Fold these 3 entries.
Entry 1:
Amino acid sequence: MLEYTDKIRGIARKLLEEGTVDVFIGYKKGSVPMMNEPLLINDPGKADLLYWDSHCGLNLCNYITKRTDRIGIVANGCNSRNIVTHIIENQIKREQLYIVGIPCTGMFDHRAVQRAVEGKEISEVREDGTTLTVMGNGFEKTLEKGDYLRSNCALCLHRNPVEQDEMIADKVEEQKGMDPFPEVGEIEKKSDQEKWEFFTELISPCIRCYACRNACPLCYCPTCFVDEAQPQWVGKSIDPTDTMTFHFLRAYHCAGRCTDCGACERVCPVDIPVRQFTSKLNKDAFEFFEWEAGIRSDQRPPLDVYKIDDYNDFIR
C-alpha cells in the first residue's frame, strides 16, 4: 500500500490549494517504527508530510467530531464506517467532508512483529508488497503480511470504504466465507462461572489509563460516565469491580455502533484484547438485527429506534 502515499499527497495538495477543504486529515510517518501518527494540515505546502502504509492503525474519526469546517480525510473500510456512524449520530455533516477512499489489505500487528524478533529493539522496517522486513542491531527478518495482521484486520469483511468522494485505487477483493466472530463462539460455550473467570482474568492487567476509551472514535461524550462525580458511577481506583464495570459499560455504550476498527486494542499499554467485549455485541447485533455498524447512512442503528411491531422473541 506504499504506492498510495504519492496519490494522497497530490489529492490533499489540490484540495487545499483550490479551497475545496479547510483542513486535510491523514497520517504521517511515526517517530518510531510501526507507529504512524494522525496528521492535520491546512497548508498545501505540508502535503508531503502525509504518509500511508500498513501501520496506519489509529482511527481518524476522533478528529472530525463536532467540527464546523470543511474536511478532507483519508478513509479505508473501518474509517469510512465510523464516518458514516458520525454522520448518523449528528457529529458531522456529510457535505462538510471530502472522503478519499483507500482500499485496504489490513494493518500489521506491531506486537506480533515484536514477538517474531523475540522482543529485540526494531530500528527500521521496510514494507514491500505483502512482506515486511524488520531490522535492528545485528538482525534482519522478513515476515509475510498475512501471518502478522491485526486480529480485526484478519477477519475484516469490509476492506473497501463504504462512502467516498474519490478512490485512490481500484477496490480490493473482499474476504468472504469466514466466521468473523470465532473467539466469541468459543466463549459462548463456557458456563456462567467460566465466563466470569475468563473476563476477570482478561482485565486483570488493566491499569485504568483509559487509552482504549480515548482512542475509540465512538467515545465522544463531553463527560464520560467514569468521570461523573454526581452521581459517581465508578470508583477511581483499580478495584476489580470498578475495572470490570468500566469495561462492560463502555462496551455496552458501543453496542450496535462498533465497527471493529481495533483502535482500542492497538493502544492498550498492557495488551488486553479489548475486542473480546465489543465482538460479542457486534455478533448479537448481526444475528438479532442483521446489522453491521456504519454500512448505511440512511438507516438508524437498531438500538436507536423503536417500532411498535418490533419482533422480540429473543427477549427472555
Entry 2:
Amino acid sequence: MSQPVAIITGASRGIGAAAAILLAERGFSICVNYLNAKEKAEEVVNAIKHKNGKAIAIKADMGNENEIMRLFADVDAALGPVSALVNNAGINGGSCDLASISFDTLHSVFAINVFGTFIACREAIKRMKQIGGGNIVNISSEAAKFGGTKIAHYSASKAAINTFTLALARETAPFNIRVNAVSPGVIDTEIHHASSPERIENLLKSLPMGRMGKTEEVAELIGWLLSPQSSYVSGAIIPVTGSR
C-alpha cells in the first residue's frame, strides 16, 4: 500500500517545518514547499530522511496560481496524488495603520494568505475526489478574532480563511474530504525573536501560562486533524492559545 501524501506550504521553518517532521514520522510522504529559504527547506527534508522518511522540497510562490498548479503537478509525478494539505504559507504584511497602507501590501497579503489557499484547496480537492477522500488543514490566527494592532490587513485575511474553512467543509463533506482550521495564538517562532527584549517581556506577561506555545504543540493538533482519530471533525476552527 502506498504512503499517504501531504503537502505543507511554507514548511521551511516554524509551524510548517514542525508539521512536516511530525507527519513524516506518522507515515506520510512529504512535500516541503518553500519560496526563498531553500537551505532551510532542505534541512527539513534531510531531517525526515535521516529518520527513514520520504520527503521532497519544492519551490513555489503560493501567491501565484501557475506556480501552485506546477507544485501539485510536480508532487503528482514525484510522490503521487495528495491526500493531506496543510495551508501554512502566509505573510503578515508588516505593522501598518490603514491610512498608510498601500494597495501592493494588501495585494501581497491576500494573494498568499487567501487566494493561494483557495487555489491550493482547489487543486487538492480535484485529486482527493479521485482517490476517495482527504484532509485539509488551514492555518489561521487568533488575530482573525481580535483584529490585532495595526495589522487589519493580516487579521482580515485570516478571518477570510475561517469563513472559507466553514464553507469548504460543508461543500466537500459528501466526498469524504474534511476541512478544518488551526488558529494559533502566540507561538515561539522567528518573528518573535526579531522583537525587542522589552516587547518579548511584556508579551510574556500577557500569557496566562507564562510562555509562548511551541511549534511542535501546534503540529500535534495538525497531526490529529489529519488522522482517523478525528474522523467526525470537520468545519472546526480550533484555537491554540494557552488560555489567552
Entry 3:
Amino acid sequence: MGPGESPNIRIIVPVFRALDITTRCLNALAASTLPPHASVQVIDDKSPEESLSDFCRGFCAQQGWEYQLNPENLGFVASANQGMSAAPDSDIILLNSDTRVHGDWVQRLQACIYGSDRNGTATPFSNNATICSYPVFNTANPLPEGWSDGDLDALVARANAGKYAELPTAVGFCMYIRRACLDEVGPFDEQAFGAGYGEECDFSMRARQSGWHNLLAADVFVYHEGSASFQGTTGERKAHADQRMLERYPEWGSLLETCLNEDPAAGLRAAIDNARLAERPGDATLLLREQRRAVASLRDRASQLTSRLDENAAEKQYLAGQLQECRDQFTATDRALAHADHVVGELREELEQQAPRIEAMEKTIAEQKQRVIELDAAVVELHAQIRLVEQSRSWRWTAWLRYDYSAWWRRLRG
C-alpha cells in the first residue's frame, strides 16, 4: 500500500432468512457511498428460502459483488471465517443482513480504526446494539419519531465527527476488524460459538489481551432490525455465550459492569441529543420521553443489581455456614488424629516392654523346633536299624522261637 492509499476493505454479509429485511439491507448497501477500495461478498449459508437465494444471486450479479452459496448450512461464525480468510489482504466489515447503512459509513469507520496503530475493532452507533445503542443506552430502541435511519446517520456524522469511545467489546451487527488485528488474534471460534452469538465478544477479549482497542465509532449510525435469522433462539444463544465468556475470561463480568455503570458513550449520545434539538427544537418532548425511558431502564438495572446483591448476601451467608461446617469438621478430625496418635504411642510403649519376653519366647520356640527336628531324625534312624535287623539271617533263623505255639496246639486239638 503506497503513501496516501487506503487499505482494502471486504464487506461480508452472511444471509440466511428474511427476504424482505435482507432486500432492504442490500439495497441500502448498494445505495451507500462505497469507496473504490471496498468490495462486497454476500455469503448465502444454504438458505431454506429459495426466493432469498435467487434474489441475492441476481442482485450480486447486478452490482458486481461476489455471491457465495455454501453447499450446506455452516452457521454464521463459519461463514464469517470463510469470508475473512478469502480476503487475506483486506480489512473486514462484518455486516448483518438485518442492517441498513448510509452515506460514506465505510470511510468513517475506517478513519476511526486508523486513528491509532492499535485500534483493532470499531462498531457504530445503532438503535439496537446494547452498549452502542441510541437514544437509550443498552436498549433496543425504535427510531426517534420523525427521523429516518439515514437522517440519524447524517446527524451523528455532524455531531460527533471524528469522535470515539473505547469499549470492552465490539458488537457484531456491524463490526470493522483491522487486518493486522485479525492476523494476530486469529479467526472467530467456530467450535465454541457455533451458529453465532458471542463470537465477537470472544474475539474482542482476545484482541484486548493482545493490546488492541475496541472502539465505538461515534460518528456512524447503522440501523439494526435485530435477530432476523435466529427466529426466537436469541435468549438461548445469549445464555450459552455468556457462560462460555465467563468460563474463558473471569474478568468479563466486571468489565461489562464497569461499562454499564460508567457508560463511556454518555457524552457522545448527549452531543447527538443537542444536535437534534438544534436542528429540530420540537424534539424536546421526544427527548424527554427518551430520557424517561432511560431512567426506567436504569431503575430496572438498579432493581436487578439489588436482586443480585440480595442473592449474593444469601449466597455469602450460605458459604459462611459451609465454611464454619468445614472448620468444625477440621477440628473434629484434628482431635481424632490426636487421640489416634496417643493410642499408637501407648501401643508402641507396650510393644517395647514386651519385646524381651517376646524375644525369649521366640528363642524357646526355635530351640523346641530344633529338638523336634533332632527327635524326628532319631526316629528315622531307629526305623532304619529295625529294618536291617528284620532282614538279617539270625532274625530269620530264630523266627520259630517267636512262633505262637499255643494257637497251633488249639487248632490241633480242636
